[in-house]
Amino acid sequence: MEQSQVKVVASATDNPKKHTKSFPAPTLSIARPIATNSRIRQDEQYRKDMYLAFINNALQQKAKGNSEAFDELLDQFNLKNSASGEAPSPSPQLRLWILALSHVVSRLDRPLAPLVEAIVNLPWTTMDNAFVKSYTTFIGMLVSARPEYLSLVLGTITRGFTHQSGLQALDSSLPEGSSRPLTRRVVYERQHYLLRHLLSLIPTLPSTLQPLLLSNFPHKRQSQVAQITYIRNLLQVMDYCPELADRILATIVDRALQIDVEIQVELEELEELEGAGEQEEVFELDPFDTVVGQEGSDEESESEDGDDVDNFSDLSSDAGGDDELGEEPEVPTDFRHVQDMVSKLDAILKLIFDHFNRTHASTPPLPALVQSPMSSRPDSPLFPSDTPSEPYRPPSPESLERGKARRRAQFHALLSIFDRAIIRTFKSRYTQFLVFWYSSLDPEFSDLFQGMLVSKALLEDDQPVVTRAAAASYIASFVSRAQFVDREGTRRVVSVLCNFLKSHIDIMDAVTMQTGTTLPPTQSMGNHSVFYAVCQAVFLVFCFRWRDLVEEEEEDMDELSSVGASAPTKKWMPELGVIQRVITSPLNPLKVCSANVVTQFARVSQATDFIYCYTIMESNRRNETGYSSGPSTPVGNDRGTHSARSRATAVHPAVLGHSINAELNTFFPFDPYKLPKSASYIEGVYREWSSVAIDDEEEDEGEEEEDEGDVAQGPAIPTSDATQDDTDGLGASFGGMSISPIPPRNLVSAGL
């Protein structure tokens, strides 16, 4: 019985000439005898019944311990044996086997797992359209009837999203039935097509899918094309699987952070080294448009450095520990490695920006209702056709509201990622700009981000000190650099920061009166570190936004001065009055804060007639007690009283020892954005220092006024260091402030 059935099947499949009418190639235009549709369907049903009879017998014999027929069935899915010589494509034959197996999916238990594995591992994405539809239907029936195979199926799908999977699919030598070349885009779209179908059948599928998506994430050492291929597919999964959108986004941002912290050199230096080598290609081919089978050997060599690394990601909680606040990861210095990391990070961030921009600029589609595979449109990406697409329809009010809600949810997810990972990673340079750009889309987003930072820095006492200080650095850099933060927003932030400083100084004064000493208690060292971070935040914001901190009445006063009256003193917002107490306090922030910020604050505050800092700065320089916060602080002319000088320089060593001065000196989260591909998203919303720097003429006028007053104050202090370091006015430092951990002697030469 078994031998006769095998012979029948063999005679039905091994003689293509005899059954030419039964297997018309769906996309080939070959003259053949006319056959009616009913005749074709009848013949196909007959053959499917034959296959089903053989399958039933094979399963029965397997249950009795005789695996001969089952092994023959298994061999039908061994494509290396099926496709050889000039044999026709086995897709029609495989499709009939799949259709027959669809009737027995409930019987495919664990002992028959080898058959299921062989079917799941078929290179089905490279086969013809008819097979893709039948295969998708079969897999849906399989996991519905046998949930134990869900992990196997999903694991294969997620591996199919990788760049390497496209190369492995070529081993079958099974060309797509269409005359049009098969591209990677079609291969990946078919994987998404199957996954969407399974999502419509199994509501609990996301819980199984998420860890598989994570485990197949390419290692950070793998090539750029491997990274962007997988990330593009993950971003597409986010569109039709909203349950996983937040976790997928967090996974991608974590990968960007891991790459970001390895870039600890100035990109200007990298460009200089790159200029001596080969120039980068001007035109880049989208890897999704690569024709399957035409990948060059360059891609293999490009990923050689990642071949010895398994596909399992290092995105676990233990992987990124060395990069968090207070840690010192090993910084790679190899030029090619850093160049490769810069290119990867730029490409990854551009993908995320593009995804966010599509969410913002276009109306999201209606919730995806996955159709039956048999009812798919013939002009879908799975089955490319020349049929024109449907005309664009304007969005409805309901869809616009859904889009707004989706953007709001996405921003809250991004804020959560920022709170969990980004703010805790000190050495990141560019990943935080995702939040910066998204905040520019809506004033509500900007307010939420600023509120989160202010709360974390000033109000959340349970936060680690280093996190609170980082939040202060973020709020200062954000308000200074974001063009979309208006005058009122700037004044609100400065008011809150100044009130915090006033409260801190009031407490210090009260302690001094009670104890009779100016030495701060050691148990409050953490609070002093936050105090210094907030001081630096106010200094930085003042340098960029001082025009917004002047009271509006100043405009009327300027009109009076234009008719011959002497220039009046600017009237500042009242909260800034505490700064005089701050800089003359025993905590002496001008000594502890970043020398770069202090220098610029001193110059801007002098030019705007706000406050004079050079007396204290020079006293700090002369009375250093073995502590250094960077290069020699540039100073101006001596002016002020002896009491102010002596009061401000008495800094307790414990304060300096417990401060976060090193981090304050090097952490400016929103430094100028230097990644070329993704920079276009930042340019329109970013404030450059050159746009707010005080003109040289205005600065010179301020210095002349100070010189007149210095004649009666005493001998002038040499200022050669200051003038030599900053010959271009106020722009040399803030135009390219760096967060790189550069030794102090290199700060000036590095563009600080």
From TrEMBL:
The protein's matches in InterPro entries, at most eight in alphabetical order, are given as: ARM-type_fold, RNA_pol_I_trans_ini_fac_RRN3
Annotated region (Disordered), positions in chain? 1-24, 292-334, 363-403, 623-648, 695-752
Q: Which GO terms describe its cellular component?
A: nucleus
Kindly state which keywords UniProt assigns to this record, in alphabetical order. Initiation factor, Protein biosynthesis
Record's compositionally biased regions (Polar residues): 625-635
* Biological processes annotated in GO: transcription initiation at RNA polymerase I promoter
Q: Which domain of life is it from?
A: Eukaryota
* Keyword Translocase listed: no
Q: Does the keyword Zinc apply?
A: no
Q: Where is the composition biased (Acidic residues)?
A: 296-311, 320-331, 695-710
Concerning Pfam families, the annotation shows:
RRN3
**A Gene Ontology molecular function term of the record:** RNA polymerase I core binding
Assigned protein family: Belongs to the RRN3 family.
How is this protein named in the record?
Answer: RNA polymerase I-specific transcription initiation factor RRN3
State the organism named in the record. Answer: Gloeophyllum trabeum (strain ATCC 11539 / FP-39264 / Madison 617)
